[in-house]
Amino acid sequence: MLFGILSSASAIGIRDYNPPVSSLFDMDLSAFYSYLGQDSTTTNNGSVNYIYNNFYESLPFGWSVNSSGGLTYDGLAPDSLDETQYTVLLDGEIHKYLSGDIFGYTSLHLASQTDYDHLDASTFLGAGYGRYINATSMAKALRIQEELQEEGTINGALEDAVLIALASEIDNASSYEIQRDYYLAIEEVLEESEQIDVLEAVALYRIMQVLDNEVVRDRYYGYRVGAGVGYELSNPYSEDTEDPVMEIFGNFAYPFSLRSQFNQSALFTSNLKEFGDSYNFAATSSFSFEISDKFDDRVQYQFVADKTTIGSGSGAVSNTVSTHTITNSFIFYIENRISLNFDASLIKTTDLTLQKSVGFSIGYDLF
Known about the structure:
Blueprint: E1 22-38, E2 41-57, E3 61-74, E4 84-99, E5 102-113, E6 120-134, H1 136-151, H2 160-171, H3 179-190, H4 201-213, E7 220-234, E8 245-257, E9 260-271, E10 279-292, E11 295-310, E12 317-333, E13 338-349, E14 355-365
Antiparallel strand pairs: 1-2, 1-14, 2-3, 3-4, 4-5, 5-6, 6-7, 7-8, 8-9, 9-10, 10-11, 11-12, 12-13, 13-14
Helix pairs in contact: 1-2, 1-4, 2-3
């Protein structure tokens, strides 16, 4: 079914949902393999990748754990390189709100890959402002409202209080040991509406489809900005550790509608001793749009700049290498957790020719 962009409007939207406790738990797997033999040209490579995101927000504490990584296989790798290589990144943070949206934080950054001699580890201490709210439960509540409208159970929007209570009950789904009790609680909330006397079997079935089988994408909103000072605990290539570094970050999330999400993140790090002379800057913008209940389009732009400076004073020599990457991904959900992904990318790095890539992969949403 193709969803109409203009559905019956609600008095409240996703960004009006502000629960006292907000959390997000998501993990995705993707796999790719290619084998091609033609004359003297052969390709034989593949990869398995994962992305894990988990955050919890309350007053006054919050925490987050984010990780990504994967295994790559190249059957034609030179003898000097391993056929199979891995990369793992892990970032963890604990923060406490001191006053309003002002928070202090401590974080740990870990990285490991095939060619590292040691674990790359660093820790940061800093402060910031802002917070994130996971409003996916409100997105599900609004989808249930759409189903009830299409079924003819209701003629207009549900009352604000009913929608908020419905989203809150969806948030509490894990507290029910018996699924039937969860469905009964959802039914009781909806029957508080003046438009609903008793939910019929067809309406209940469509509600259960939204809750359990339909792909309702994560929706969250808010922002966080901050700065901190970090210390290297372990260097991947040396027994010695580097000088302290400073990080400045900013993150922003905004759901334009029930079916679209915009995310922006930026991170600047530089050695405190030579602040600004050598640095790394990375920024990512992404926009996702649900074309239908089975088909998504996601566009992402990433900019990375690395500046290095050798020497000091008038004899210093600086070099900056930047990379621009644009990726468009079409995602077809074969089943509510399994997807077929088509990715097309353009990559331009300083002094290098434009790179173009296309590929298919299979994805699986674990949580």
